[in-house]
Amino acid sequence: MTDIKPGKAAWRSSAISIAFRCHDAGIQNPDPLPPVETAAAVRDLTARMIAKVYAGQLHSRVAAGLAPLFNLQLRSIEASVLERRIAKLEKRLAQFDKEVPEKGRAA
Question: Does this model's pTM top 0.70?
Answer without folding.
Answer: no
